[in-house]
Design a protein that fits this description.
alpha+beta; ibrinogen binding protein from staphylococcus aureus fold; Helix Hairpins; 16 helices
């Protein structure tokens, strides 16, 4: 996957078509690597995402809602000062580099017209957003400041002149001639795809491989023919946004037709729609993973500690299994006391409890009398008998604890940003984390909000993303006649279909949600149990999220991210329709 220069060119074309002459109405910075500009253009509101994430850097129009921090960061406040109400005059790209310029017209505090340029450099770990005064070329500020000590080539600090990143001197793929391309390629050196990336602006490895695939045999004529096809598509802006999904490999996307990649292709009307779908879970999941790294390590360590404890308890249980043997020894010593005298180290007796009455050798303590040896064995028997019952209780408690911790780890994997506070609060209440921000928590609404989806036939499906949501959804929100689903013997979300008449299609889609938001997300043919809510019960004193159920039937589904995305879109579409009416 790559937000390369060609994808950036398609996005710039889309942004100019939809946003030009629009006015900036909102500016938010939900995360230190993300900005969202609200722009109203042509009687519509748009959200433009500017991401400088090291792996997911991109620019696009998004339909996703982002959670904003209570206090806006400093750079966000600066942009509001300079760009709030500004008119977007143009969006451009620096050659075919991954550098996009938003050119604004605004007014300063004195009412004088000023021109500002917001430059987004989507270049991996070197990505940045920089606000520049267009007339002077001076930097007003940047999301990531670079001092001369950090970068000897250029300084990115307020007041410094803006300097473009180093120019690698590559060929422009839109204007390069066949002769120019052949002059920079060495057919004898091999690795032609790498050479294409190194010598053509905007070319990513996946696009270079596409050229070689279209060329077939890598002769000069074939290569020029294949490159010309790609060049014509770029010149004519014949963009075909698509995501290629091939099982066993990472998904890919591009705005040009990729014929060399196997798998199913999903086409989109715009590059932004493609990017929104592709990054629907990836970018947020990565952000959640960063924010929950400390919690994940703590819970994983707690789980390992309990697993070691369980192994020890099972060894002790095996030892406690010798209790019946000590009882037998005590009874046989008592009945054969006439054969034993103090100082004996063992005695051979007939085991009359055995049908064949085989002889048995019993070890003795030579320092004890026969009666004391018998009493010693009875004491061991009683001690192990009591210990066995306690050990079995501890084993059950430890197994439940491991299951609970496994569920927390799964919930951290599937959590969205808004779910994290509830998970953290649950762990604080459970004593796994130190409690903090109690005053802030008391001011927040205490009612959990399960995720909402709409099935293909319009039925509401609710998904609990953590234990608080699961408990609230199953024990308070759902009706007895609703259908409840959960992966069979696998940690995962509670899913409820809010209807007393459930079609096979809706049942299958809800089961897919249950499998997708479970530990078995990457598996196939995942078993999912379905039953009515009235058959689901929470035992007294049970851990958060734990329930028991019966009268279930099991269906098998393979988690499908595209289906989950579609069910989410159905919900958003229904919400828009309700708002219009």
């Amino acid at each position: 996957m790559a937000f390369d220069g060609i994808v950036a060119r398609a996005v710039v074309h889309e942004l100019n078509e939809r946003l030009k002459t629009g006015r900036v109405v909102k500016i938010h910075q939900p995360h230190k690597t993300e900005l969202v500009l609200g722009i109203r253009a042509h009687r519509q509101n748009y959200k433009v995402l500017l991401s400088i994430h090291a792996q997911y850097a991109r620019v696009q129009i998004t339909n996703k809602n982002y959670e904003n921090p209570p206090e806006p960061p400093t750079f966000c406040m600066l942009l509001r000062k300079y760009l709030d109400g500004a008119i977007l005059e143009n969006v451009s790209q620096v050659d075919f580099e991954r550098i996009i310029r938003f050119e604004f017209r605004s007014r300063n505090e004195l009412g004088d017209e000023v021109k500002l340029t917001l430059i987004i450099e989507t270049m991996g770990k070197h990505s940045n957003v920089i606000l520049v005064d267009s007339l002077s070329g001076r930097i007003i500020d940047a999301m990531k400041r670079l001092s001369p000590a950090m970068n000897r080539y250029r300084t990115v600090l307020p007041g410094a002149s803006y300097v473009l990143p180093p120019n690698p001197g590559k060929l422009n793929p839109e204007t390069a001639t066949p002769e120019e391309l052949l002059s920079v390629l060495d057919f004898n050196a091999g690795k032609l795809d790498r050479q294409l990336v190194d010598n053509l602006e905007g070319f990513s490895p996946v696009l270079a491989k596409e050229v070689l695939h279209r060329a077939g045999l890598p002769s000069r004529a074939n290569l020029i023919r294949a490159f010309t096809e790609i060049q014509m598509a770029i010149c004519n802006q014949d963009f075909r946004p698509q995501i290629i999904r091939h099982p066993g490999h990472k998904d890919d996307f591009h705005v040009l037709d990729l014929t060399h990649l196997p798998g199913e292709k999903e086409h989109f009307d715009t590059p932004s729609a493609m990017l929104d779908t592709f990054y629907a879970y990836k970018a947020e999941h990565d952000l959640v993973r960063q924010r929950t790294a400390d919690i994940g390590r703590l819970i994983a360590n707690e789980k390992k500690k309990n697993e070691r404890k369980l192994q020890k308890l099972r060894r002790e249980l095996d030892e406690a299994g010798a209790a019946s043997r000590y009882q037998l020894y005590g009874e046989l010593v008592t009945s054969h006391m006439h054969l034993i005298k103090k100082g004996d180290r063992e005695v051979e007796v007939i085991n009359y409890y055995d049908e064949q009455q085989k002889p048995m050798t019993i070890p003795l303590d030579p320092q004890k009398s026969p009666a004391e040896n018998a009493q010693n064995y009875f004491r061991k028997y009683n001690k192990l008998k009591t210990a066995r019952a306690e050990i079995e209780k501890h084993i059950q408690t430890t197994e439940k604890e491991i299951l609970y911790l496994d569920g927390i780890l799964q919930q951290l994997e599937a959590a969205s940003l808004k779910d994290l506070d509830e998970i953290r609060e649950e762990l604080e209440v459970g004593g796994y984390l130190k409690q903090k921000n109690t005053k802030i928590r008391k001011s927040k609404p205490n009612r959990p909000e399960p995720e909402r989806y709409i099935s293909s036939d319009g039925t509401l499906i609710l998904v609990g993303k953590n234990n608080r949501q699961n408990d609230y959804l199953t024990t308070r929100l759902a009706s007895p006649s609703d259908t409840w689903l959960h992966t069979k013997d696998i940690p995962g979300s509670h899913v409820v279909i809010r209807s007393n008449r459930v079609s096979e299609t809706t049942l299958h889609e809800a089961a897919n949600l249950a499998a997708f938001f479970s530990k078995a997300r990457q598996s196939s043919q995942v078993p999912v149990d379905a039953t009515l809510v009235k058959h689901v019960h929470k035992p007294n004193g049970a851990k958060p999220g734990f329930v028991i159920y019966d009268h279930q039937k099991t269906v098998y589904v393979t988690p499908d991210e595209r289906l989950v995305t579609q069910l989410k879109k159905n919900k958003e579409k229904t919400a828009e329709q309700n708002a219009e009416t």
